[in-house]
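Reading a protein record of the kind used here takes only a little practice. The record below shows the convention in full:
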Amino acid sequence: MNIRQFILFMMILLLAGCRQGNRHADGITPNMVVPSAQQIAYQQMELVGFIHFSINTFTGKEWGYGDESPSLFNPSGLDAGQWARVARDAGMKELILTAKHHDGFCLWPSQYTDHCIRNSPYKGGNGDIVREFVDSCREYGLKVGLYLSPWDRYHKDYGKPEYIDHYRKQLIELLTQYGDINEIWFDGANGGSGYYGGADENRKIDPATYYGWDSTFRLVKSLQPGISIFSDAGPDIRWVGNEHGHAGDPFWSTIDRDKLIIGRSDQAYLNTGDPEGRDWIIGQCDVSIRPGWFYHEEEDSLVKTPDELYDIYLKSVGRNAVLLLNIPPDRRGLIHERDISSLKAFRELLDLTFATDLAKGATVTASNTRGGKKGFSPQGLVDDEPLTWWAADDTVGQAVIMLDPGREMTFDIIMLSEPVEYGQRISRFRIETRAEEGWIPAFEGTTIGYKRLVRIPAVTTSRFRLVILEANNTPALSRIGLFRSAGN
């Protein structure tokens, strides 16, 4: 953990401590399952980038077989600094690099395989793209993530116990030679046809037992105590069951790890979570800006538009998850100009949309406020003070919160947030706007969590209200915001 991460971690602990102090003073009870300070810090990043770049970039494949010659890997103008600048300018807070994909080709000179950058023409065999990547991320203020595919279609021992020793040795290389790593990414693809050292055969494994994940997780945490681990089963961050960038509705951060197997989990369960779940695992929505995960020239005309990326953002970050957006470098080793153009316009769309919160300055009232205390005034929902928020009495499971801005306002995005250090509590709500004939329902939703962004047809009204219909504990909210999408 570097000094910036340490300071952020301590600030989160202090913030949680302040709110815990309120809890002790007035009896607010957290849920049985709550996030760690590290998980809260992770979710606050909201937007993370993925860099898929490897031998597949030069073969046109998505999943290589492991029989590709390292001589094919020869980017003409690789600039990891460009990757980091593009990610930073798009608002990403972290980049994850595919250090090794399923084909087994390693972007660092691993001492445990010859199928690596050392045997490529890149920099005369003296290159280390993992090193270039981590140095560039740090130069541009990004956290660093690495992806090491558990499946290796090149290695002769894949499917045997000997491969697990090999895999962990490569993990040790990555987690001891490149400084602080914020995230390690394990996916569930495993077993099938491959080169396997020349065997050219099909190998199947039992994903529940073969990898010995619990031991691997302990190894990772021993090497990098501050790291977050992603997989189907967490333990810190989980897949949401699809590669479209969409979290479910409802979407609970709570889930039961006992029901999850990496590579063989119920995708519908991952996509909704579990209100009775015993574990808090942040949802991460992965999607590529292109149809494929690696760059293919024929997809240059198929880059997702800014509006498509905006919609994905609302269905990921806006549903209590983190968006992981893949931006694959081309054969030059650069993010393509079309991708950059779309990302730039996407960032502008977000910045313009959320620049002005129409709820600021509104008078806020609630049907119930905890003990009538000033510290829980609903007015805290529209101020800029992170320690002020609203909560109801313990005996209250439903509540109505009304905003009166004293003027007409036009909006189509509603932002809602819970103080998640106390858990995810609200399970059903309704949004209503005032018209001449009375209160008109505009939206009915389920979960809120860290952040909920509700998109409705643009409405002009002088009053807005949120009706909390169900909650698993005392209802509590930390923010209500009203916004107008740019261009609407």
Q: What stands out?
A: The radius of gyration is 24 Å. Residues 4-25 have pLDDT under 50 and may be disordered.
